[in-house]
Amino acid sequence: MDLKSGEGERGVETVKKSDTHEGDSAIDKSNTREGDLGLKAKDVGNISNKDMFFRADKIDFKNWDVQLEKHLSRVWSRDRDGHTKNEEWEIDLAKLDIRNIIAHGTYGMVYRGAYDGQDVAVKVLDWGEDGIATAAETAALRVSFRQEVAVWHKLDHPNVTKFVGASMGTSNLKIPSNSTSSEAHNSFPSRACCVVVEYVPGGTLKKYLIRNWRKKLAFKIVIQLALDLSRGLSYLHSKKIVHRDVKTENMLLDTQRTLKIADFGVARVEAQNPKDMTGETGTLGYMAPEVLDGKPYNRKCDVYSFGICFWEIYCCDMPYPDLSFAEVSSAVVRQNLRPEIPRCCPSSVASIMRKCWDANPEKRPEMDEVVRLLEAIDTSKGGGMIPEDQAAGCFCFSTARGP
Fold first, then answer.
1. What is the strand order of the sheet 108-115 is part of?
2. Distance of alpha carbon 368 from alpha carbon 232, whole angstroms
3. Count of alpha carbons within 13 Å of 168, Cβ hemisphere only?
């Protein structure tokens, strides 16, 4: 038996079996959403589901995918808004007090606030329902957010910013209108996800180094900061986590100048097979050659980035300040470009830098070895970078003389 109303138009054909009684099971129209599968209930009548065959070449699978995605999104959002807590990291939004904005980035803003009496930083990200992001961008953003939460919420180390909790896809965030500019507030997404972490009041390591650009840091402080960073990374690697964006801008300092690793937006659990980890993830200037070159990589890419950060901490300067991103990328991969180590730098420090940023990942040390090397350095006799106001007769960056 053919359904004439659907023939050619929807590509649906039915075959009536001899042992099937008419009206065995009518399709319940109340459970059929018109257009959901490119098929209307009225076109089917009283034909049983088991009596019906679909021509696959006529079915609009793309429309099915769109409808399914919308349905799942509605269900997921409804569950998120109305469900009871079923994840150990989910926060009680009633206890979250968001105050003033302290930073902003490409995908959202960071606010200072309080959660259950504790000073916190609240990283708020658009959930991708602004109508501007493409479906692929929205999906990538949500995957990145889930990834960040999955990595961060299990970590507990004095050199890693402490995770407090998160909320995904919520529309219940209460942000005071005077917490930021009217333009930023008006652009705040109707639905957002947020990550709540301990508030670290000292600002970023990057800003601290910039403030000390002229006078430089005492050698003891240089080693202390490098040790904090190396211990934090060693802990992450022991948990099979690769940060993938190690840079001074992603390190925070507390009031005691203790360094804490932050921003796990691109961190991920290390793959068993390095070939499963590819792609340019990180910040140019800190990215290892294998990452820049699109080759497989592992935790040793963090070791390379540490070497660059160690140089930056020692020199209180920026690597490759006069080169463009394209020039840095090309020269690091093809010409083995690295920051120039000052001649006044102790050999023990210079050696660690060179080992960490070796072009061959297999030759780079593990971070726990870097910790041991740093702990063995004697800081009692000095060895820090010469301050700018004392550098008139210094040949720290001059070409070596003699043979």
1. 96-104, 108-115, 118-126, 192-198, 163-170
2. 10
3. 23
Domain boundaries, position 20: 12-63
Segment (H or E) for 109: strand 108-115
Active site residues: 245
For 236-265, how does the pLDDT look when each residue is reduced to its tens digit (9 = 90+)? 999 988 888 899 999 999 999 999 998 765
The model carries a pTM of 0.70
Instruction: Return d(Cα 269, Cα 291) in angstroms, integer.
Output: 16
395 residue type, one letter: F
- pLDDT per residue over 127-173, tens digit each? 665 556 677 877 777 777 777 787 788 899 999 999 999 887 666 67
- The rounded Cα 278 to chain-centroid distance in angstroms is 15
Determine, yes or no, domain membership for 78: no
- Closest Cα partner for 291 from 361, 240, 364? 361
My answer on whether 117 and 48 are in the same domain is no
Q: What is the DSSP string of 58-105?
A: GS-HHHHHHHHHHHHHHHHHHHHHHPPP-STTB--GGGEEEEEEEEE-
> What is the spatial distance between Cα 219 and Cα 227, in angstroms, rounded to a whole number?
12
Look up the CATH number of the domain holding residue 153: 3.30.200.20
Residues in Cβ contact with 1 at an 8 Å cutoff, skipping those fewer than 6 apart: 14, 15, 16, 47
Whole-number Å distance between alpha carbons of 320 and 311: 12
Instruction: Say if residue 277 is in the same domain as residue 166.
Output: no
Please give the share of the chain, as a percent, with pLDDT higher than 90: 41
